[in-house]
Design goal:
The complex is a heterodimer. By secondary structure, chain A is of the alpha/beta class. Helix content of chain A is 27%, strand content 17%. Classes of the chains: A alpha/beta, B alpha/beta.
Chain lengths: 307, 605
């Protein structure tokens, strides 16, 4: 715990967001996500005191503890539910949800469906390292087929669940993809996600060098491509020259589906629909439009004498 | 009609589901209330929406208790039953709640084609020694019922009941008009009034007996008619709670229905979550943001919420959980009452358990429990339960309108609310595991909460001493409540032969039974616990003043297994507390039967 005694007028710096050192493994992809998140906050001068990072359980669940703002490290699979309480009743706050592939797609799958369907105004970061790490190397919904883990030692049995296709199918209003080893792209992705009003789903390919060092050939660039468009997210400056760029209009849902099911991995903005209503806004409007009643009289209508 | 003047009567209307028995009952009890009587009404509701008619599962009806004194429970000893056919009557006779002189008015209109079945049930009535009064709805009324698509018998029976209880016709007609409102007017209203009138006239001419329940002379001040769940809903508004987050489950759902209509007008929201876990998660999230929130469920939903309850204890986030208990385990009997969730509430979550469990015994408790719960959860930053049950939730009562407190801050809750729950205010400064307890948006106080163990700065720690400290402080919060608890509500002498202890909805039965015992010189006393966990520290001393401590609770127990409250009292006091009456029948306890059990126990010296 640290306190924010600094003069807010001086501007937010990376140092202000500093907390105790993270307890992740050396070279963990979560460091990249954390750095991208902090850079985004500094770039956009996001107010620390009105930011709440909400997480579930897993390596990704620790992130709120490592950003000096408000935070809640909740229970496994349920960060969306907790965040919903804040999103509904505290629209003055900026809510970021940090969730892993096990947290979001397995134990918490139901909440992801409904968070997306309700289009709750928040940024959702899916830290997808394609396995359970904190519980020591088990198969997750996104583990690649045939990859051995402690629970499926002869090789993961099923094809991985395609998170991008899933959320497009649910009707997500914002779907983007990035990776932990490109903090510049990650920060830009979070910026676009933050500017979108609604449930901004950000898929992050995240390395787990401890349990799966061979996944994500992050030094190679031929297996992925950046999606580019004037309304999209700019390709990562450090890598863009070494990889293919794929023009894609983020308004085109059909094209987004095609990209999602392609064997190639794409980073960038798959889809954005700025006109989808948000449940939290509708709920607040309901309160605003309801005819106010005096609390003093709440029991009067049950009276039996004066009718 | 011969007129019997009585100070108390209990009667029942039995019909198939969907034919308006409860509506008829509601109209009649309003009329009773307006003419100075006390009433208590329990609806009998099937778990299904519209089970096939003329089956046991379809039984839907009302039990009404009316008298010249404040009635606190549904009692027993039914004096009169009106049944629309023999099948629902047969089902109800199984419950064995009628007076031995009970009069049974059976509609013979369904007899054609069901002769054998009618004969079987009529023989059973004769065997039980009850008086059978067969009747049939007149032809004119039958034609109207047919034109209404088969609905409307309830109004005919309402007419009969009104005549049998000597209620003035005009008062009933006024009530019917109020019930039908501005939308159901013209022919529909006229048809229903005709049915009511025909039933009334039929009974006046043909039923040889009638009752006149004595009323109180003075009209009561501001009487209201309200059921437990509606009262709880209004109490949530009065407590200043701004978010209700729930998932549909019987018998808790009607709180959500009421608040969905009302809460926005008081600046609050009703959130229907995707599941029980999401429902509590959102309530906890809201309270973390400083906005008071409640979640509400019933048994199976409580199981699903337990992980978040443990999290709220650990993270020190206030949360109010209302559990409207029903018969379990699992889906059990969704529309029957039980008190078996007590262990799940007190001990249900993983790890060490630190929470406060309130219970409600009547509709007035339901109104004030949310503010009591809000006080405790915000002071302690621990989960607080309100345990209601099907019976309390669905029973209606006429009460003097409770004082509305309009709470916005827990420091403004008046003393009488604390008195009601037999507790003193807690100390001003209660030590928390974490020194800083700010809400998002507060400058200079940023913090992160976690379900991991932390030290006083909120830093994650796996140190032995730090973990032990966190446990000690959470439990110390519960000890603050223990020390603040006053002597629970007592009935009868403060020492003697027998003390009957109960909690929640059993208060009325205990009170009425002990009053009965007092009149008959039976040496018995009663104790009722509104706060069930923790228990007050003086309990052991109080128990010492009686030769026997016995319990009543609507939960299973037998000679080898003490039911939950009994087990709790034994553990906490080391007194040989025995269950006098426990059971999972889905039906409430009955005062006269309880008195007999007390008498039997006194004989076993």
């Amino acid at each position: 715990m640290t306190t924010d005694t600094k003069n807010p007028a001086a501007g937010l710096t990376l140092k202000d967001l500093q907390t105790d050192n993270p307890r992740w493994c050396t070279a963990c992809g979560d460091f990249g996500v954390l750095m991208g998140m902090k850079r985004f906050m500094v770039d956009k001068q996001i107010s620390q005191v009105t930011t709440v990072n909400v997480s579930g359980i897993g390596c990704s669940g620790r992130t709120p503890n490592y950003i000096n703002s408000y935070g809640a490290h909740t229970i496994h699979g349920r960060p969306i539910t907790f965040a919903t309480g804040l999103i509904l009743t505290r629209p003055d706050l900026q809510v970021f949800i940090h969730s892993g592939d096990g947290d979001a797609l397995s134990i918490g799958g139901n909440h992801l469906i409904h968070g997306i369907n309700k289009n709750l105004n928040c940024v959702f970061l899916l830290y997808d390292n394609e396995l359970y790490a904190l519980t020591k190397n088990q198969t997750s919904p996104t583990t690649r087929i045939a990859h051995p883990t402690n629970t499926q030692p002869s090789g993961t049995m099923l094809e991985p669940l395609n998170a991008i296709r899933l959320v497009l199918g649910i009707g997500a209003s914002f779907v983007a993809s990035t990776a932990d080893w490109m903090p510049d792209h990650l920060a830009k992705t979070l910026e676009a996600a933050y500017e979108h009003k609604g449930f901004s789903f950000v898929h992050i390919s995240q390395r787990c060098p401890h349990f799966d060092p061979n996944n994500f050939a992050h030094k190679e660039t031929n297996w992925f491509s950046f999606l580019t468009h004037e309304k999209g997210i700019a390709a990562d400056k450090r890598i863009m020259d070494k990889t293919e760029l794929t023009p894609h209009d983020p308004n085109d849902l059909e094209a987004a589906f095609k990209l999602a099911i392609s064997p190639k991995r794409y980073f960038g903005l798959f889809y954005r629909n700025s006109s989808k209503p948000s449940y939290d806004q509708i709920m607040r409007d309901n309160v605003k439009n309801a005819k106010p009643k005096p609390r003093a009289n709440i029991l009067d209508k049950f009276g039996i004498n004066d009718t | 009609m011969n007129k019997e003047k009585v100070s108390l009567s209990r009667f029942e209307l039995l019909m198939d589901a969907g034919f308006g028995a409860q509506k008829a009952g509601d109209i009649l009890i309003r009329a009773f209330a307006k003419t100075g009587r006390y009433v208590y009404i329990e609806p009998m509701i099937p778990a299904e929406i519209s089970p096939p008619p003329r089956t046991h599962a379809a039984l839907s009806g009302v039990i009404i208790r009316v008298g010249d004194f404040d009635i606190t429970n549904i009692g027993n000893d039914t004096d009169l039953i009106i049944s629309s056919h023999e099948i629902c009557l047969e089902r109800r006779l199984d419950d064995d709640e009628n007076n031995r002189k009970c009069r049974v008015l059976l509609d013979m209109g369904n007899k054609v084609g069901n002769e054998d079945s009618y004969e079987r049930v009529c023989k059973r009535i004769a065997k039980l020694g009850l008086s059978l009064f067969p009747f049939e709805i007149d032809e004119a009324a039958k034609a109207v019922i047919k034109s209404l698509g088969g609905k409307g018998e309830n109004m005919y029976y309402l007419g009969m009941m009104s005549a049998i209880y000597n209620m003035p016709k005009e008062i009933l007609v006024t009530e019917i008009k109020i019930t039908f409102g501005k939308k159901l007017v013209g022919k529909i209203l006229d048809d229903n009034l005709l049915l009511f009138n025909n039933g009334y006239d039929y009974a006046q001419k043909n039923v040889i007996f009638s009752y006149e329940v004595q009323g109180i002379e003075k009209a009561r001040k501001d009487p209201i008619l309200i059921d437990g769940n509606t009262s709880m809903s209004m109490g949530i508004i009065d407590a200043g709670i701004k978010l209700y987050s729930g998932y549909p489950i019987t018998p808790a759902s009607s709180i959500m229905h009421t608040l969905a209509k009302e809460l926005p007008s008081f600046g609050g929201m009703v959130h229907q979550a995707e599941d029980e876990i999401a429902a509590i998660g959102t309530a906890v999230g809201s309270y973390f943001g400083g906005v008071p929130a409640v979640t509400c469920t019933s048994g199976p939903g409580l199981s699903l919420k337990q992980e978040f309850i443990g999290f709220a204890s650990s993270a020190e986030i206030p949360i109010i959980v209302i559990d409207v208990q029903r018969s379990g385990p699992s889906t059990g009997m969704p529309t029957k009452t039980e008190q078996s969730d007590l262990p799940a509430a007190i001990f249900g979550n993983h790890g060490d358990n630190t929470k406060v469990v309130l219970s409600v015994s009547n509709v007035i408790d339901c109104f004030y429990a949310p503010q009591m719960a809000r006080y405790l959860t915000e002071k302690l930053r621990l989960p607080v339960f309100i345990l209601s049950d099907f019976l309390t939730a669905n029973s209606y009562k006429i009460i003097e309108k409770p004082i509305v407190n309009q709470i916005s801050d827990i420091n403004n809750i008046p003393d009488f609310v604390f008195d009601r729950f037999h507790i003193n205010r807690l100390p001003d400064n209660i030590e928390m595991v974490r020194d800083l307890q700010s809400i998002p948006g507060e400058e200079g106080k940023m913090r992160r909460v976690t379900g991991l163990n932390t030290d006083h700065e909120g830093k994650i720690s796996y140190d032995a001493e730090v973990n032990q400290r966190a446990h000690r402080l959470r439990n110390e919060k519960i000890h603050h409540v223990r020390r603040a608890l006053r002597l629970p509500e007592m009935f009868g002498p403060d020492h003697g032969e027998i003390l009957v202890v109960g909690w929640g909805s059993n208060r009325g039965v205990i009170e009425e039974t002990i009053n009965m015992c007092k009149k008959e010189g039976i040496p018995a006393s009663g104790m009722h616990l509104r706060i069930v966990y923790p228990l007050p520290l003086m309990l052991k001393e109080v128990f010492k003043k009686y030769k026997r401590i016995v319990t009543i609770e609507l939960a299973y127990g037998d000679e080898l297994k003490p039911p939950p409250l009994t087990a709790l009292l034994r553990t906490e006091t080391l007194v040989d507390v025995q269950a006098l009456w426990c059971g999972a029948t889905g039906r409430p306890f009955r005062p006269r039967a309880l008195k007999h059990k007390i008498e039997d126990l006194l004989k076993q010296k």
